[in-house]
Design goal:
The chain has 2 domains: 67 residues, Ribosomal Protein L25, Chain P, CATH 2.40.240; 159 residues, Alpha/beta knot. It is 30% helix and 26% strand. Strands 6, 7, 8, 9, 10, 11 and 12 form a 7-stranded parallel beta sheet that branches. The longest helix is centred in the last third of the chain and has 16 residues. It starts with 8 loop residues before the first strand and ends with a helix. Bound molecules: S-adenosyl-L-homocysteine. S-adenosyl-L-homocysteine binds next to helix 7.
Length: 244
């Protein structure tokens, strides 16, 4: 049964099970009662990234908080996508967009990477995690991606699990068709990396291309903005070798 997108979907921390109850946070309670003007016996959907999606009924509304009574599981918990999305942080507004698109398009892990030209070296992973949760609430994703702590490119590559293919979105790659390069990765565990507004340096490009677990791909003849490149790369990867 497909989720009912007309109903509000809320991410909650606690466990979800038969006849359980959920006490919403003050912010969520305010949203349901004052913004969405919902009352007792109203229906919402809740998920926690572990127990699938549940239909819940507003049981009690007090000044500060709303309690939900779980009615039925509407969707089972899907497997967490195994795609690791590595990205050099970019300016806040576009970073929010990029995180949302990565979540919508099946990223399972969000890994910020600090490269030579990264301008936003200081980013709050809490903000990224909140973005990922909001994207999951809005687009029906039940497995909330894990946001990892930022890491420098050298360290990321030094500690890389070689069994996972790293797809390098290389803005200087020649015009060969990315699909031909990707087809050879079918069945492999996958990751991709997208650079910052300033692009990858020549040293970084050489470093990446020298690694046997790296596959460089072009994303067409035009230089795309990093957030556009994220969507283009995820689309071509999912379309050719994604696990859907
Ligand atoms: N300012 C840089 C472009 C950076 S775009 C320049 O002018 O060269 C940000 C990132 O998006 C790049 O590092 C790359 O990872 C990705 N990207 C953008 N356009 C691309 C393309 N045509 N092919 C492959 N990757 C691309």
């Amino acid at each position: 049964m497909r989720a009912n997108y007309k109903m509000q979907r809320l991410f909650v921390e606690g466990g979800l099970s038969e006849n359980g109850t959920v006490a919403l946070s003050a912010q969520q309670s305010h949203y349901l009662t004052h913004v969405m003007r919902m009352r007792e016996r109203g229906d919402v959907l809740v998920f926690n990234g572990r127990d699938g999606e549940w239909r819940a009924v507003i049981a009690t509304v007090s000044k500060k908080s709303v309690t939900l009574a779980l009615a039925e599981q509407t969707l089972p918990q899907p497997a967490t996508p195994d795609l690791v999305y590595c990205f050099a942080p970019i300016k806040a507004g576009r970073l929010d967009y990029m995180i949302q698109k990565a979540v919508e398009m099946g990223a399972g892990v969000l890994q910020p990477v600090i490269t030579q030209h990264t301008q936003m070296a200081k980013i709050g992973t809490e903000r990224l995690q909140a973005n990922a949760i909001e994207a999951a609430e809005q687009c029906g994703v039940l497995a909330v991606p894990q946001v990892r702590a930022p890491v420098k490119l050298d360290r990321l590559l030094a500690e890389w699990d070689g069994s996972r293919a790293l797809i390098f979105c290389d803005e200087s790659a020649a015009g060969d068709n990315p699909v031909d390069a990707l087809i050879g990765l079918k069945g492999r565990r996958l990751a991709l990396i997208v650079g910052p507004e300033g692009g990858f340096s020549e040293d970084e490009r050489r470093q990446l291309r020298a690694l046997d677990f790296v596959t460089a791909i072009p994303l067409g003849p035009r230089i795309l903005r990093a957030d556009t490149a994220a969507v283009a790369a995820l689309a071509v990867i999912q379309a050719t070798i994604g696990d859907w």
